[in-house]
Amino acid sequence: MAVQGAFVYLGCYTAGAGGRGEGIVVAQREPDSGALIPLGTVAVTPAPSFLARHPDLPVLYAVNEVTDGGVSAFRVAADGDLTTLGSRPTGGADPCHLVVADDGRHLFVANYGDGSVTVFPLDGQGVPGESTDLVRHEGHGPDPQRQERAHTHMVASGGDGGPLLVVDLGTDSVYRYELDAVTGRLHPRVPRVRTAAGVGPRHLARHPDGRRCWLVGELDGSVLAGEVTTDVSLRLSGRVAASGRPGQVQPSEVAVGPEGRFLYVANRGVGTIAVFALDGELPVLVDEVDSGGKWPRHFARIGANLYVADERADLISVFRVDPATGVPAPAGEPVRVPSPTCVLPWTERPNASRSLSHGA
Would you say residue 232 has pLDDT above 80? Predict the structure, then answer.
């Protein structure tokens, strides 16, 4: 490639995971219009269904959501190309989510298939070493098809040195872990936070204030409001429906807008993006717009634009968000991408060319 600018990386399901993609796709983003220009597949890798970036280095990470789960790391060039830095087995099945620690020294991976969490140390170049811990959850929920065992679905950084939050769909729980930065091992904080039976919690979003948070229930179509308390526990305070549309609703992604006033929820089945106001204790539905397909798997807000990946419709829909109401409206034609599952914005950061010092 010879293109410079802001990019968007798109994770996709590949043939081994029932998808039609080939790996990680990159698109250039036009800042004024928000339009995406696909530039092609830049990494052929198995089922990179979720992507994350290093907080300081130009390094992108992808899960490989297959039975013998893996994680891959790539160096990001100025023109958007990816160079493989390495890959590691997670020791768990079907990893579906990952996050880098705020200090950039560890990578955490959620393995959906066997309900486990893997920890990898990262060296000064952001390359993952051999895993230092693998923690497996035990238990099940009332749904015999989806909750027959633990199924970790998300790992969220605690922020400001707080505990790691791990969302488990299979056990209706949010687990909390402290990381021993020297050994790279996780130590559980008890008790774990339990939702009502059958909620099937999937993803969690934190407010910029660091206190409020929201959890979507994939199995019961809910949004749960919560608060991180002064003792760094998580208190759930109420529930609202994730969608006002009739039909089977399976929330997928949830995120707070950059202004902190609105919450966005992608609803599979009914194919919508729901917008909630965050003025009160519970979110209040403001509007619900068609996402462009029936299976919006993931989305990302970039400036005034919202980009929605519809896994089954093979497209990325582009929206423009009204700054006053928070409601997105279609902006231009959707972009065709096979089996997209994740949208990762990428802009150059001022310190993105340096390496990290791991010395004392």
Answer: no
